[in-house]
Amino acid sequence: xxxxxxxxxxxxxxxxxxxxxxxxxxxxxxFYYTLNETGCFAWKQLEKAKEGLPxxxxxxxxxxxxxxxxxxxxxxLRALVxxxxxxxxxxx
Amino acid sequence: xxxxxxxxxxxxxxxxxxxxxxxxxxxxAHDIELALFERLLDEAKSIYNCDHIGLTGGxxxxxxxxxxxxxxxxxxxxxxxxxxxxxxxxxxxxxxxxADPRKKDSCTAIDFSIDGADATVHDHIRGAGxxxxxxxxxxxxxxxGIPFMLQMTINAYNQHQLEQYALGAAxxxxxxxxxxxxxxxxxxxxxxxxxxxxxxxxIQDRLDRxxxxxxxxxxxxxGFHNPRPFHECEPFRSEILHVDYEGRMNLCCMHAGxxxxxxxxxxxxxxxxxxxxxxxxxxxxxxxxxxxxxxxxMEAQGLSGWDEYPCTYCLKYFEKPHWTxxxxxxxxxxxxxxxxxxxxxxxxxxxxxxxxxxxxx
Lengths: 92, 361
Known about the structure:
The complex is a heterodimer. Helices cover 45% and strands 25% of the residues of chain A.
């Protein structure tokens, strides 16, 4: 069960590329994870918020920037968050 | 091939303050002159058909004309690699690669100096936060498809992590993992970093085991135990020529800007004044003298102990800090490490702040 508030794990580094995409590196496991532009944006929002953010708030921010529709943003983010929590990249 | 590559120590600037750093400039920072750099490239290409340049320092990316140096390399159709602490990759190197893909395409490897398998050990040696910064740069290489390798300088602080380090490098996708011996710095820190000859033999065995076990190439540099008295490293065989940030041709990075740099004869020529071939001839004469002197020492039954560790013998021969069974011996560093990490006698220094190594940020 994922609680609503999620935060970036301190062992995970985001490296951004010029085209807006990025790569997450878990410095403990040495696994890389590629993020698309929206995922990269969402991760940066989480990095800025020391205590993490509720997924709903994250969705609002993504929608404000990318205008994908709040429902779509939240649904896509919940799927991404689930995956990132499972990989130990996000703390729920 | 004679002189398959040149190693150019392009600057002695660095933004870190590593415990094992050998540099002891005791004066303002130096950067190799662009005109000299270009002339050396032209001569290396013309004389030896050399097509590869190694860049080291200090931190090479801190050279004020770093971009122009890379231009000089790619304009001549040469390839290059660089030893870096990884602190300026994203903002500096990545930007240069984006602006001119030739610079990326001609780069054969970025060699990251990582001195621990985790942030705790690495940062203890190289400074707080430096591990994560370097890891970010490695991720940049991964994303951009740039080959990279990891190199660790082994000492008492990190020797327990060799296996974990090599495995981690393989997991990160490094094309090679290299290990080197820490040499004495001429500071009080040598006492903390010292490993005995017996300990080095065990470390060497562990490295040999890693070489056999891992699929990623594991190498170790010259300096480890070698009982062959006339074994010669690449600079001795004229396969690599080194020129430092002041334009001095010398044997290798362990002879550039180290305590006692003006003693002995390891700086064979001022390349600002002579041609590359002339410097090379002087290097050959020095190497021959080195060999003859070693033979004389053998004749007198004078070789023992640490003399079977080639870099230690070489540094002793040239009157630089070197290991002995009692710890470090030889010249003492003159400068205070910036940020006050070291000065003689715990640790008062006469070197004014304004004269310490300036840093470009």
